[in-house]
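STRUCTURE REQUEST FORM
Protein name: BRCT domain-containing protein
Source organism: Neurospora tetrasperma
Requested output: C-alpha cells
Priority: standard
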Amino acid sequence: MAGENEKPGLLDGCSIYFVQSKSLSASLISEFSKLVHKHGAQLLEPTKDGKIPLEHATHIVSNTIDFEQYHDALQYMIPVVNSNWIKITLARNKVAQVRPYSPDPRMIFSNVILTCADIPESDKETIIGATMALGGMESKDLTRQTTHICALSMDHEKCQEAQKKNPKCKIVLPHWFDDCLRLGRRISEAPYMLPDPEILRTGPDEDITIPPSEAVEGATSVIPSAAMPGREREKIVVFAQKKVMISQDLPINARLRNILNNLIEQSDGEVVNDVDACDMYVCQYRDGDEYIRAAQQGKDVGNLAWLYYLIVHNEWTRPTRRLLHYPIPRDGIPGFTGMKITLSNYGGDARVYLENLITAAGATYTKTMKADNTHLITARMNGEKCEAAKEWNIEIINHLWIEDSYAKCEVQTFSNPRYQHFPPRTNLGEIIGSTFFDEQRLREVYFPGGEEVLSTAAKKRRKANDAANKNVYTSNFAETDAGTASKSSPLGGKTASKPPRGTQNKQNIQTPAKTTRTTRGKENDTPSVMSSGSRSAKDKALSKLHQLAPDIALYEKEKKRTAKDGPWGGKRAADQIDRDRAAKESSPAEDGGEEDETEQKRPAKKARVSSSPEMRICLTGYKRWVNDKIREEADRRKLRSMGIQIVQDNVPCDYLAAPRMVRTMKFLRCLARGPEIISSDYVTACVEAGKVLPPKDYLLVDKESEDRFGVTLQTAISRARANRGRLLWGVPIFCTEEIKNGVQSYQTIAEANGAIFRVFRGRGGSVIKPTTPEEDGGAPPDPVYLLTSPSPAEKALWPKFEEMAKKGNMEPRIVVSDWLLDVAMKQELTFDPRYLAVRYFAENPPF
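Status: completed
Returned output:
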C-alpha cells in the first residue's frame, strides 16, 4: 500500500485494455503494459468469454477500429485511442487528450497538432475549430509535438524556428485545411507545403502521378479475382471461435466451397448451416430470408470478397468498412438505371474498383465517352474527357458521389459542393475507398423491423450499433456538412494579400475553389490505354482466382510433415492431395476428429456420429484407457450414443478434459482455443451413469498448479478467448534441431498461438531479412527467440543466431523451452531474464 506522502502515479485511475492487431503486436502490448502499470494504471483482463470488460474500462488502446467491440465502446462513450496516446502522455508527463489519437480514419485530422502563424484571427479560429472537431488539437506555441503550422509565408518566427528545431513539422498553406474540409477527407499535404508550394508554382493542367490506392486493396470487386502472392506463412486465426455460414447464392463451385470450409475449420472456426447459429454470414445479394434474418440479428454479413480478404490478411474487419465487401443489391440502387458513366484520371485498382462499384449500383460503365454518356467521374478537372464533358453538358463529379450514393442506398444530389471539388494539384485517387456504409440506411431499405423476433443478444447488438452510429460525429461534420463548411471555408472567402516568399507566382493566395475549374491540356492517360491496361490486369487476376485456397490447403498439409522430411519442404504431391480431396468428397461427412486410427478407417460410422454431436471433448492424460483398447472402444461407442464426441487436439472442441493443469502439447494446443476445461473424471462419470451429466459440476480445480504456473485457470481461459490463437501472432520463434523432447511438440504449441516457427541450423535457409532502424521507422528492435537445450552442438549455434538477429535489426533472445511453455499456459506474452539460456543453465546445471 502506498505511503501517505507518496505521489499518485501519472495514470492513477486509468483502467486500460489493449486490443491486439498487426500494428499493435503482443510484444508491443507487453512493453506498453509495463510502462502504464509503472505509472499507476490498472491493466484489465478480458471477461470470461474473452470480451473487453467495458463496464470497467476508462481507455481502450487500439491502432485500428477493426475489432468487434468498437461499436460497443462508442455506445458507452469509452475513448478508443492509438498507442501514440501513451507515448505522448509519458513524454509530457501529463495525461494527453484522447480526441487527437483516435484510430478512426473518419477523424481526418487525427494525430494533427496544429499551431497557426500569420493567419487572420477570424480564419485562425475557423481552422482551429474545424481541426479540433475532426480529431486534431491546437498548440498555442511551437513544441516538439507540433505536427503542422498553418501559415501564409515563411516570415513568421514559428516557421523559422520549426526549420531549425523541428524539421518534421509540416508548414502548410490554409488551402490544405480548406480542401480537406470541402472533401471530408484528408489529402496529402505535399502540394501545399511552404516554402515552395506546388499549388502556386505549377499549373493545374500539368501531369500528376496517379497515386496507389491502398484503401481498396482486396476490395475492388464483389467477386475476388486475385489472391495475394506467397506471404510469410502464418496460422490463419481470423475465424477462431467463429461460426460461419456460407450461403448457396454465392457463385462458387462445390470444390471451392469445400476448400473454404476446410480453411475455416483448420483455423479453429466452424461451418454451420443455420443462420441463427452463425456469427458470420457470407452471401452475394441483399435479399432472401436468410440475409434479412442475419442482418436483423446484427451478424457480420459480408460477401465472398470479404471472406477472401479475411483469409488473405488474417485480420478481422467489419464488412461495412469497405463498400464492395458487403452483399450487392440484386437490381442495383434505385435511380441508377439508365445512367451511363465513364471514368477519367483513375488508374490501377482504383479504376477497377470504380468500374465494379458503378455496375453494382445498377448503372452502365463505358470505357470511352460519347455524347450519350450521362456522367463523368474524374479524379482531376483535367484532360480530354473533361473538356468534352463540358461541351456536351455531361455532369462532371468526383468519385465521392458514387461512393456516397452506394453507401447511403440512394442517388445523391449533385448540388453538394464536395462532389464537384477538385484540388488543383491532387489526384483524388489517393482518398478512394475511404467511405463507410451508412448502416442505418441499410437497415431501413433492406431489412427493416424484426424487433419482435430478435433475441436479447440481437437487440443488444442493434442498440449498440445505433448508439455508435449516433456517436460517429465525424460523419456529421466532415461528410454531411462538408458542403456547408466549404461555403464558409477557413479562409472565409477573404484571401490573404501576402504571397509566400520564394514562389514564382506573384498573384495573391486565393481560395482553391476559385482556381480549379479552369483547365487546359491533354488527359494523362487516354481511355484506350487505361481500358486495355485494366482489362489485362483483370484477365491475369482471373487466372489466379482459384490459386489461393489450394495453396493454403497444400501448406496446411505440408506443415504437418515431421522434422526428418524438412520443416517446410517435402514433395508437392499434387496427385496425393487430389486423392485426399476426392476421398473427403466421397465421404458422407467431414473428419470427426476421432483419435483411434481404426475408427478413422470407417467413414460411414464416423459420418453418422459427427453429424450433430452435442458435445466435443478433447481428452488428455486419461488413465482409464491405458493399455485397454477393448474398454476404450466400448466407452467411445457409449459416449457417441449420448452425443459426446472425443476429438483430436487439432480440431475445434467445446471442452478440454484433463486430470490437472499440465504443460503437455495437447493441453497447451487446446488451451489456445479457449475451451471450457473440465476434469477428466467427467468422461468416466458419463460412461458409468449412461447419460450426459452437467459439465459445470466437473470444472477443473487445481490450485496447486495455478500457484506453480502463476496464473488462475479461468484467467488463462479468458485470455485465450480474447487472443483467439493470436498470442504469438507474427512473433518469430526459432528452435534448434536437437532440442530436448524434439522439435515437433514446440512447433505445435507455437503455431497454435500464431507464431512464425522455424528450425535454426546455423546455415542458409533460416534467416531474417536484414533491415535498418530507419526502415523500421526508428522503432526499437523487435525480439526474436531461439529455443535451445544446453548440448554443445546447440551452444555452437548461439553466436550465429545472435549475428543473424542483429543483422536483421532484431533483438536476439536465446531461451529455454520453459519460456514458450509458460507463455502458452499463461496466455500472456511476457519475458523475464531468468529464461535466458546462459543464465538458466548457469543456475540449473544440466549434469
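Reviewer notes: Residues 591-723 form a domain with the Rossmann fold fold (CATH 3.40.50.10190). Residues 1-6, 226-232, 481-549, 552-611 have pLDDT under 50 and may be disordered.
Form closed.
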